[in-house]
Design a protein that fits this description.
The chain is of the alpha/beta class and 326 residues long. The chain contains 12 helices and 14 strands. The protein is globular.
């Protein structure tokens, strides 16, 4: 009896804590002049998110991603189903002290400076002034905004990328345990997406639990521990990248320079495309890299050879007949 109890205790402590749990969430809106029509942006959605993981909810525009996120945040109520965030029922007010949120289309007070906006956000959480004076500069540095610009420049003068950064800073102002991000890369250029991605990775390294929506699948593939695919309000699959895409089989390589005859020995399907040689590697990567150095050739990219998340997503939609416009 004692042995069984000890084992059960040990098993419980080694399992990651559940931070977000949803069971059978459904949302129905009534529309039309007589409210006799219905729209169902979310149907029977169940998922679990664990402490310290980065979870990406993927889907096309209009798939129901923002609806699910707003239900979990307690901004709107589900028509059916239930859920818990940080161990408390959805909408619990005390829980919101430990949650950060960046909306897709955040509203900013245009005539405030970045510093004033963060002071305002900190005031909503009743963060003492002494803590604000230390935390705000740290957050500005973390998201890549200069202290001088934050003090002098009004938000109406910020670029899209700068607004995303200041929005991310306000989402972190209360040092949240759980962070919700709605399309954080939306509208950004490649450099802006890279910078926001690096910020998310740094938060992940600190052990933050991150839940974010996106339709930019290539970014999600680099960030997330697990992903869920949402289509027409239905969560069609959830899992790790490896579980969904399968284990990688070798490497797909892109090369600048080199000899066709030599490269063909390493890349049987070698072809020249987009100003570089590319193909699937046959042989040991270390030996291949040595051969490249002898030819004064350079590696443009070297990625694990497996279907991309985008290819997998399209395949899932095709199998379910969901590729038509929503």
């Amino acid at each position: 009896m004692n042995v069984t109890s000890a084992s059960a205790t040990q098993s419980t402590t080694t399992e990651p804590a559940i931070v977000v749990q949803a069971s059978g969430l459904r949302k129905v809106y009534r529309t039309g002049f007589w409210l006799n029509q219905t729209i169902v942006p979310l149907q029977e959605c169940s998922l679990t998110i664990y402490q310290g993981e980065t979870f990406g909810l993927l889907g096309q525009n209009g798939a129901g991603k923002t609806t699910l996120l707003k239900i979990l945040l307690g901004i709107i109520r589900p028509s059916r189903g239930q859920g818990w965030v940080l161990g408390q029922p959805l909408g619990d007010r005390a829980t919101k002290q430990h949650v950060g949120y960046l909306p897709e289309n955040a509203y900013f007070y245009d005539y405030l400076t970045g510093w004033e906006f963060l002071e305002y956000a900190a005031g909503l959480f009743r963060i003492p002034r002494s803590v604000q004076r230390q935390r705000i500069p740290e957050l500005l540095d973390r998201v890549g905004l200069s202290l001088a610009a934050a003090r002098k420049k009004q938000l109406r003068q910020y670029s899209k990328g700068m607004l995303q950064r200041i929005g991310l800073a306000q989402a972190l102002i209360n040092d949240p345990e759980l962070l919700f991000l709605d399309e954080p890369m939306s509208g950004l250029d490649p450099l802006g997406r890279y910078q926001i991605r690096e910020i998310i990775l740094s938060l992940k390294a600190q052990g933050k639990t991150i839940f974010f929506n996106s339709h930019v699948l290539s970014d999600v593939e680099l960030i997330c521990d697990r992903v869920g695919l949402l289509a027409r309000g239905e969560l069609i699959c959830v899992g790790t990248i490896e579980a969904l895409l399968g284990k990688a089989q070798g490497y797909f390589v892109k090369i600048s320079g080199g000899s066709f005859e030599v490269l063909r020995q390493w890349l049987p399907d070698l072809k020249f495309q987009n100003d570089c040689w590319q193909g699937h590697l046959k042989g040991e990567p270390s030996d291949f890299l040595t051969s490249l150095r002898l030819m004064n050739a350079q590696v443009v990219s070297m990625n694990l050879a497996r279907p991309s998340l985008e290819e997998f997503f399209v395949q899932q939609l095709e199998q379910r007949g969901m590729l038509t416009s929503q």
